[in-house]
Structure formats: C-alpha cells, structure tokens
Amino acid sequence: SIQTLEAYEELQKSHVLMGDWSRVDKDFIPAYRWIIGEMTARAIPMIEGRPPMWAWTKKPDLRHGAYLESGQRGVRLEIEVPSGLV
N or C: which end of the chain has fewer CB within 10 A? Predict the structure, then answer.
C-alpha cells in the first residue's frame, strides 16, 4: 500500500492503519461507495464506516502514476493479507 509519511508515522505509534474518509479525494468517493457495495455483496469483512484501503498484488513503480501529490513524502508498505479478506 502507498501511504503518506504521516500515515506511516501514525502506524508506528498505534500499530493500526485504517481507511479515513478525510484522505479520500472527493472525485473518488463514488468509486469507493461502489467498492463498498461490492464488498458488502460478497460478504468481505470491512470496518463499518471506513473506506477500504488500496493495495497492489505486485510492487508498483513509484516513478510512474499519481500515488501521492507532487512533492509529498510517502512510503510503500509491504503487507500480508489473508486471502479471505481480498
């Protein structure tokens, strides 16, 4: 998952990282709502009221794509997710 440096620092303190609507670009809110509907229909567990977090199955190339705003510092987290939660 690609996260801001601030999100990473919060993870270091709390050991928990959850989706946060205040960090979702307003143009993507309809897409997130659609994804939530699909996850609900498929009985994929999620935290009520929180947006899902993006992750990639292959390591993304950070030199290409708009993962963070220009000049914003961030980190690429490698995570393990049980297959039933994907």
Answer: C
Specify the pTM: 0.70
What are the residue ranges in the chain where pLDDT is below 50?
Answer: none
Query: Which amino acid belongs to residue 46?
Result: M
Q: Which long-range contacts (CB under 8 A, 24 or more apart) does 57-65 make?
A: 60/2, 62/2
CA 15/CA 17 separation, integer angstroms: 7
Positive/negative CA dihedral, 68, 4, 52, 44: positive
Cβ atoms of residues 73 and 5 within 8 Å: yes
